[in-house]
Write a structure and sequence with these properties.
- The protein is of the alpha+beta class and 350 residues long.
- Among the domains are: 40 residues, no CATH class; 130 residues, Mannose-Binding Protein A, Chain A (Roll), CATH 3.10.100; 63 residues.
- 14% of the residues lie in helices and 21% in strands.
- The strands form 7 sheets. It has a 4-stranded antiparallel beta sheet with strand order 1-2-3-21, with no helix packed on it. The protein has a 4-stranded mixed beta sheet with strand order 4-6-7-13, with no helix packed on it.
Length: 350
Amino acid sequence: MPNLTPFQQFIRQSLLYPLASPFLPPITKVQADYSYAAGKLIGTLAVGSPPSVPKTGAVVSYDGNNLDDGGTQLGNPVSPRFVDNGDNTISDKATGLMWIKRPELIIPGGLNAGDIAVERGFIVKGTLYNAGDIVLQNIYPNVYVCLTSHTTLDPVDYADAFAYGWGDLVYDNPTNGGDGTWYQNQDGLESNGATIAEAISNGGTWTQIAITSADMADQDLNLVSGSWQQSSYAQGVGDGSILPNSVSWGAIDDGGGGLGAIEQCHLISKNGHTDWRLPNIKEMISILDYGGILPAIETDFFPTVQSFEYWTSTIDSYNNINAWIIQMNGGSLSSLLRTEYHFYLPCRSY
């Protein structure tokens, strides 16, 4: 506060505290109020902030008088609450949290950090795929992420004096003297030999690949090459869709499927942000929609959340070998062993 003459101080105290003695309260109180008001707004006249606790989403009253949550529907009235940012993230205006919309589209291991994987369905031969595209294996189906842009092969028999690229797959056809198995090129050089065996004896580098005729028919042999990486973040289903996968809580190489949920969230680098994390129990509860079930969440914004258990980063203090999970089928809580496989939904503060 600027230096005031005694008379100016008297006037200011009179204006701030008109019902009290102008010599009270002490100057320190006046300074604090002046600092808050900045000479423009008296704190007691300001409109209060809306409640910070979001609405639960419940719309059905069970007490018969609409005095319960379903009747009052109290909570932060911000609208719209959720905003789709168009980059596979959702902003929650009520809590200031940002969520990954579809975690299965986060490229594993930080590959092409910041990109969104493009879901391409079942893999097809003779098709151009770009780095970050995710496809389904036709037989199992497992989910694979494209590491380098390339066109999948239309597999052919091995031929002599042909300029093969690294990773190309060919069939060593017995009708041409071959051994009837599949090989992958490992040198990117022109072939030199009537059969793979001759090509190898002449200095070529080929690796025998175990591929069945069924694999051949479904083009899954394209996933054997070094241009793909199997994803532990997603799982495929028979209709060609890709869904979030369960993960392990444990440490790296714990034999439980790779990185745990906490570690996987912290590895995410997206849109220049590296502060993604596994939400705590209160953060996870904040996005539940108790007006819906199977799953209890707004599916317009979280379309692939499953009606199963989702990890939080909050330990069970009563039994610390457990941590809290959210049952997304209806929004209940459970305490489960931290080593179990369950789903997860990364978030960050923005």
